[in-house]
Amino acid sequence: MARRQRGPAHVSDRPVGYGVPALLAIGLHVLVLILSVVTLPQRQPESQTTSIVQATLVSTETTTDQAQRAEEARARAEARQAEEQAQQEEEARQAEAEEQAREEAERQAAEEQARQAEQEQAEREEEARRLQEAREEAEAEAQRRAEEAERQAQLREEQEAERQREAEEQRRAEEEARRQREAEEEARRQREAEEEAQRQREAEEEAQRQREAEEEARRQREAEEEAQRQREAEEEARRQREAEEEARRQREAEEEAQRQREAEEEARRQREAEEEAQRQREAEEEAQRQREAEEQRRREEEARRAAEAASQGLERAIEGESDSVADARQGQEAANSFINLVRRAVEQAWVIPPGASGGLSATVQVQLGPSGELFGATISQSSGDSSFDRSAIQAVEAAAPFNELRQLPPTAQRDFRQFNLRFTPGDVR
Predict the structure, then answer these.
(1) CA 282, CA 288: separation in Å to the nearest integer?
(2) Distance (Å, rounded) from C-alpha 24 to C-alpha 123?
(3) Which of 52, 65, 258, 314 stands 20 to 30 A from 274 (CA)?
């Protein structure tokens, strides 16, 4: 426009040439091309950037946001279309302006031949400079646009990589959530299986305890029945021993009576052969025999009472025998009473092991202290059955102490500080 205004002021009468208008037309076309190159690509990256951002957001937004984004994309597309339409219109206007400029240039060329002739060299130089600058600017812009395109491509790659990374993280998170749900479900099934197994075990244990309780009750009943049978057998054995002891004592009494009769016969023969002193001795012997007979009857009576009262306990038998020892103050009678007391006490305390055969026999050596306390009880002759030997020693220990030893004469006490007891299943001797 400036040239159009300055043109009339420099009209010359010099001949009009076509060189300058052609150069002007070429320069105008180059300028329009440069402006188009500079203007149009600047708008395109925006749309590309918008598309990239939109593509990235779609992968992370909800359906509502995607719809909104799609609407915005359509709006931007329409805006770009309108912009491109306006650009096309602008390019048409520019083309028209170029045509008008060309015509105007040709007209001005005719009017300004003189001025242009003078300024042709300067304008060519200026035009060359502008073209050089335009080329440099075009190259710089092309470089910038290339760099921008490269940066946009790298940005798109980074955004795509980020989208893929987010998608992978989302997939891993979903996979982890799925595995977690499966693990929780498996743990729940495992717990239920363990609880069911525990209930089953508890039921089985309860059934086992019930069976064991029933079995224990059965064994208890059998044990009680066996104990009852054992007690009955022991009672029967005790009664048998008492009967045998009574028979043995009866035999001893008869033997003693026989000995007494023989002694009386001997005394009678001695009385006939001796003097008065002999008769005195015979009288004393008679008195002694009478005492012995009385003692024998008393012992027999005491043995009968002891047999009847055996079930009332060992202490009562010992007390009865103690009275017998206290009454017998002379040697042999007191010694016999002491031995009988010891035997009965040990027999009362003796518990014969079940299954002991009648052929067993054990001898226990008994050692007493001065007051009748037990110093020791040892097996001097074993039966070969350890339980039988042990029961004999336990019987002596249970019957001790034998305090009646102190009621014996001193010489008899020394004799009975140590003695042997022979144990057989029938009696103790």
Answers:
(1) 9
(2) 9
(3) 258
pLDDT at 49 (0 to 100): 47
**How does strand 418-423 pair with strand 374-381?**
unpaired
Going from the C-alpha of 78 to that of each of 57, 82, 83, 86, 263, the distances in angstroms are 20, 6, 8, 12, 163
270's CB contacts (< 8 A; 6+ apart) are 278, 281, 282
Checking DSSP bridges between strand 362-368 and strand 374-381, what pairing results, if any?
Answer: antiparallel
Domain-by-domain residue ranges, the chain?
2-182
User: Do the beta carbons of residue 274 and residue 281 sit within 8 Å?
Assistant: yes
With tokens 């044990």, the residue in question is 223
Nearest-CA neighbor of 320 among 310, 333, 330, 335? 310
The pTM (predicted TM-score) of the whole model is: 0.28
SS3 275: coil
Report how far residue 304's alpha carbon sits from residue 131's, in angstroms, rounded to the nearest whole number.
Answer: 163
CA distances to 142, 146, 187, 224 from 149, in Å: 10, 5, 55, 108
SS3 294: helix
Which residue carries 């597309």 as its tokens? 77
CA pair distance 87, 214, nearest whole angstrom = 107
Crossing angle of the two packed helices 276-308 and 113-273, in degrees rounded to 10:
150
Sequence-distant (6+) residues with CB within 8 A of 134 are 30, 31, 34
C-alpha triplet 207, 208, 210: angle, nearest 5°: 65
